[in-house]
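Structure ticket #2291
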Amino acid sequence: MARFTLITGKMGSGKSAVSKLLRDKHFIVIDSDAEVKSIYNEPEIFCELVKHFPFVLKDGALDMNYIRDTILDEDTADKDYIMSLVIPRLLDKLTTKYEDSKEMIFIEAALTQELGWCVNYLGIKNVIKVNVNEDLRKERLVNRGVSLEMQEKFDKIQDEKYINEYWCGGSLIGNNGEINIFDINNDGTLKDLNDKLIEIQMKLGMTHQEKLATYLRYLQEIPFYYPENAWCYSFYNSCGCKGCPFPCKSIDKDWKRLEERNRAEILKRPNAHELPDGTIELSYRYEDGFENKITNTNEKGA
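Resolution: structure written out below.
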């Protein structure tokens, strides 16, 4: 199964900004909120919600504000009932969808009580926790139209302890053991955030299998980027590129200059040779005997 890494933090801390930076690097980033909203409308879950909460329907559709207020309400029984429907379904969807994946996949989720179950069930060992100055966080939420009253309600259900612990209602069920938590501060610019994220990526590391799986999926999704990224991927595997597996969207990336500067260095490697048409082919043989070849072809398409 895929190696899942969690992105979490308080509401307004900047989880979405970190997620966007990772998506720009061609990683899969799962938005747990979006996934849960889609689960609410699955026929079986929809019917259960309507049966249990008669007033949840509004103009024939689920009233998401009603569900939100129920989750934020101090009546934990109703909240627990909703979570008992959607969380198992969410975890089942993720494990089924990515059962055969060899990639490193990121999940963005809030610091709520259900987080510990996700960490436990998905075997998550690495967590990126986004932090921000409290005044700045509240200012961002106000700018997003979140009232101070609503902020206080959300703050009551958010706690860092839920990374390591999984609860049911008000009872502690178990502990997730040793978790690697990588704190990232989001007080500065987007470039500052990206630089810090690259440092964390280097610590997380990627196996050859994870790099290859991510790269091949990327080529299938966006084949017209192939010439540039075939070269970039070859360079990354050969010489390293500051911890980014696909830096095609890095700031001030000059493809021609990159190729000219590194072509000679790459050709020095024992696994590299130049083909008759001038392209470079790199061969990789992994510990399990698997061999893969990458070329910096100039032809579009995967």
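Closing remark: Residues 3-204 form a domain with the Rossmann fold fold (CATH 3.40.50.300).
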